[in-house]
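WARN retry 2 of 3 for item q-0093 after timeout on previous attempt; input resubmitted unchanged.
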Amino acid sequence: MNKRKIIIIGTGPGGLTAGMLLASRGYQVEIFEQQPYLGGRTAAIEAEGYTFDLGPTFLMMTFVLEEIFALTHRRLEDYLVLKKIDPLYRLRFADGREFYPSMDRKATAEQIHDLFPGNERGYERFFAYEEKKFKLLVPCLQIPYGSVYDFMSTHLIKALPYLDAHRSLHDHLARYFSDPQLRISFTFQAKYLGMSPWQCPATFSIIPYIEHGLGIYHPIGGLNQITKAMAQVVQEEGGTIRLNTGVKRLVITQGRTTGVLLENGEQVEADHVIINADFARAMQQLVPEKDRPHYTDAILARKKYSCSTFMLYLGLDRKYDLPHHNIIFARDYRQNVSEIAESMVLSEDPSLYVQNATVSDPGLAPEGHATLYVLVPVANNFSAIDWNKETPAFRDLILNKLEQLAGLEDLRQHIRYEKIITPHDWEEDKLVYQGATFNLAHNVSQMLYWRPHNQFEDIKNCFLVGGGTHPGSGLPTIFESGRISADLIVKRDES
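OK item q-0093 returned
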């Protein structure tokens, strides 16, 4: 029996991934969660018979989850029921055109022929190049990049011609598609990283390939069921999870952490500590500034961060005939993105994402009712937008767009439950630095070796998981961060 003790701060998917892997290797795992619920940004909102996912609603690259569970000698299907979503989503443009991409490549090509004539061959070239790029890049995401020598890995050397980091995602997609709206259809995925397609590195063109080539899934009960399943594995392996138990700070002696001090005054010792909290917020709250020379408050403030999101969670007393995933683009999408990322003002014509999850999973609402999850990308709190002042009018603007453009006629009359989360709430209630929902941005200077390392460079025996470390935000990469950190700990202890 391995007697080494692991403390994990936070029950987000990265921390739970590391926890289940280490517990299955015999480590004593204890997880502390400040909130009264599991999952971090992958938690559930449950109220008045309605269930919503707090944050992520797209599950992709399910093979990563299958591998994680297999490493603990379990089958994913024994814990989760996954439903493939097809069409992938409905994309509605300002001119009224609607595009329903599908994993059925023939059907999607036919839609492209009808909606964006002349671009069919570009769709074929997209698959030919991006499939090869995906296969080369995925192994690179499983390397820690804690040292510059990691750049010498065989995987990365093979992938170098396909990194495409020297051009933007939007410019890269122009190689395939001449129609501006079709280009947007394959670049809006930059929002998963909280970035503009005109600034996001073209490396991330693998994301639309993943959607079109590997599919999008919905776990019955919502994506919150993933972290619940992971927590179950941790506990089955003898680990413990303590909710409502905040960590006040790391205990650090001569550059090495030996445990944590809880907010209740209890001190808990450990051989290794894994931080799964929001990176910048965790640095400021858990680590004295003198112990993090690479990440002083001034350095943290100069980093580039993702956008934030304005959220509406609506419980309805009727159902609407909408697909599971819907995106309503602004009239001028580039201006909308610029207002979020550059001028950092509220858009008068924002783009919207709407999830109608009960069309696939009726159990998320009472009989005859439905849930609507509405996400609006907005500037993070470096914008200084006063959300106490702006929320009522912005809510009305969003509801107007939903009623007029999204196919949700008379929506207001059918709302029986409503919850709003603003960027201010993300920062104050969910403990997200500057409300940057997708964490550190993914510009070239904040990727791979230049992102906070999984084995934290400033403190020995301290490891990082989650969207603020390598490989980055997005559920599959967050799972990988947990696997990387767990592997680093095992390798260190066995050396």
